[in-house]
């Protein structure tokens, strides 16, 4: 069987599942759990890197190298294709080319790059500002050129546009169309608010569309069935597990501090044995025992 590159595996997953659910994983262990749960693709959020790995808000304060560390850890733990949030690409065309090559080299399957200004904001916050359409097209062109000269020719370049909230639907569609013409494989229209808008977008764009179904944002929590009917090809849940983990951790911290014991929250914890099962701990232990006994017999 021919070995598929990460980019090819992401495209294969898209062909196999309609729409493709892409689950956010902020670290290697959550990626392992996502794989065991049956997901065919996973995601590394820029906000997740900033929030979880560095304790920073999602305001463009982390660098390419910060993101690469988490990509390497996740891709070292699972073969699931990983889509990466590359923010604005971290600079000019040369920086964007380096971003593509380094993210691909780290093992990711693809990345999305957006049309916000360098001093970006969360896509579901007010006050966003976007670059000109030509500058966004230049970003995509630089990314596609770098991909085409890299090792993984199937590495996915996804164009994200925040134009809907800033300039309206017509501008968002025009930008998406221009990015597709420049070589983008897929489109990520951010902060859409209705199924009718997704339908409009999908009918206008001849490329797979991603819906960002993030909690507590501008987009309602539409189901996969609803989004499929509206022509959406991919459904992203960037930080769902992370938010749940944070709430659980805070509860444990507060309860243990107040009661002087963690007994009351044991029922809410993943057990040691469950952790071991996901990690394949006993297989490692058996291998260690085998090597130890083999060494003693020599």
Describe this structure as you would to a colleague.
By secondary structure, this protein is of the alpha/beta class. It is built from 13 helices and 8 strands. An 8-stranded parallel sheet has the order 6-5-4-3-2-1-8-7. α2 links the parallel β1 and β2.
Fold blueprint:
Elements: H1 6-16, E1 20-24, H2 28-37, E2 41-44, H3 46-54, H4 64-75, E3 82-85, H5 93-105, E4 110-114, H6 133-148, E5 156-161, H7 163-167, H8 169-181, E6 186-189, H9 195-204, E7 210-212, H10 224-229, E8 234-237, H11 240-259, H12 272-279, H13 281-297
Parallel strand pairs: 1-2, 1-8, 2-3, 3-4, 4-5, 5-6, 7-8
Strand order of the largest sheet: 6-5-4-3-2-1-8-7
H and E order: HEHEHHEHEHEHHEHEHEHHH
What gap, in angstroms, lies between the N and C termini? Answer: 39 Å
Q: Count the beta strands.
A: 8
Fraction of helical residues: 40-55%
Give the low-confidence spans: none
Radius of gyration: 21 Å
Give the mean pLDDT: 93
Broad shape: globular
Query: How is the main sheet built?
Result: 8 strands, parallel
Oligomeric state: single chain
SS-derived structural category: alpha/beta
Please indicate the percent range of residues in DSSP E strands (runs of 2 or more): 5-15%
């Amino acid at each position: 069987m021919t070995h598929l590159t990460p980019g090819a595996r992401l495209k294969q997953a898209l062909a196999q599942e309609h729409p493709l659910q892409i689950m956010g994983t902020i670290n290697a262990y959550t990626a392992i759990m996502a794989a065991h749960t049956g997901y065919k693709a996973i995601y590394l959020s820029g906000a997740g890197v900033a929030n979880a790995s560095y304790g920073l808000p999602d305001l463009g304060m982390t660098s390419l190298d910060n993101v690469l560390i988490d990509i390497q850890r996740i891709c070292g733990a699972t073969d699931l294709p990983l889509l990466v949030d590359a923010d604005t690409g971290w600079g000019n065309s040369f920086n964007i080319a380096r971003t593509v090559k380094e993210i691909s080299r780290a093992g990711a399957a693809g990345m999305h790059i957006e049309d916000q200004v360098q001093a970006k904001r969360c896509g579901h916050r007010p006050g966003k500002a976007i670059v000109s359409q030509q500058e966004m097209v230049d970003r995509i062109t630089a990314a596609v050129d770098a991909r085409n000269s890299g090792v993984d020719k199937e590495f996915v370049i996804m164009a994200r546009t925040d134009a809907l909230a800033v300039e309206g639907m017509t501008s968002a569609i025009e930008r998406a169309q221009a990015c597709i013409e420049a070589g983008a494989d897929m489109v990520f229209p951010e902060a859409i608010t209705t199924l009718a808008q997704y339908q409009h977008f999908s009918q206008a764009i001849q490329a797979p569309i991603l819906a960002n179904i993030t909690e507590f944002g501008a987009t309602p929590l539409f189901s996969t069935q609803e989004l499929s009917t509206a022509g959406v090809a991919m459904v992203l849940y960037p930080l769902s597990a992370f938010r749940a983990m944070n709430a659980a951790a805070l509860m444990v911290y507060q309860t243990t501090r107040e009661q002087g014991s963690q007994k009351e929250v044991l029922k809410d914890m993943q057990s040691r044995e469950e952790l071991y099962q996901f990690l394949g701990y006993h297989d490692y232990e058996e291998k260690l025992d085998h090597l130890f006994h083999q060494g003693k017999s020599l």
